[in-house]
Amino acid sequence: MAHVPAPGPLEAIFRVFRERCRGCASGRMTMQTFIRATMADENGRRYPAAFAFFSCDRCGLRRKKNVGQPDEAVSDGEWARWVERRSIDDR
Ligand SMILES: [Zn+2]
Q1: For residue range 17-71, what is the model confidence (pLDDT) as tens digits?
Q2: Which chain residues have CB less than 5 Å from ligand 1, an ion?
Q3: Is residue 83 classed as helix, strand or coil in its secondary structure?
Q4: Which of 48, 71, 77, 83 is 20 to 30 Å apart from 61, CA to CA?
Q5: Would you say 32 and 85 are in contact if contact means Cβ atoms under 8 Å apart?
Q6: Residue 38 forms beta bridges with which residues?
Q7: What is the CA(16)–ligand 1 centre distance, in A?
């Protein structure tokens, strides 16, 4: 089994953040993975970022959410890269 680091405060917040799904009437968004990354702004300055991927437990709607920002749609490519890679590693 892959090593899984203890969740930090941000991850812990996302883990309990179960927003109502906007795609169906009764689903809840469940966190699938949590990513920490270094991003670069338009001036090339690097900054740490953290974002979480969610899917609906009913209809499978996928969303991602950055800290302090509204949630966004997720492409199939992003989901495969960030979420499915993680699940393969954990086998
Ligand atoms: Zn849903």
Answers
A1: 778 999 998 999 999 998 888 888 899 999 888 889 999 999 999 999 887 778 8
A2: 21, 23-24, 27, 56, 58-59, 61
A3: helix
A4: 48
A5: no
A6: 48
A7: 17
Confidence (pTM): 0.71
How far does the centroid of ligand 1 lie from the alpha carbon of residue 77, in Å? 20
Longest dimension (CA), the chain: 43
pLDDT band at 2 (very low <50, low <70, confident <90, very high): low
Phi, psi of 77 (to 5 degrees): -65, -45
- Ligand 1 centroid distance, CA of 62 (Å): 9
> Which spans in the chain are helix H?
9-16, 76-78, 85-89
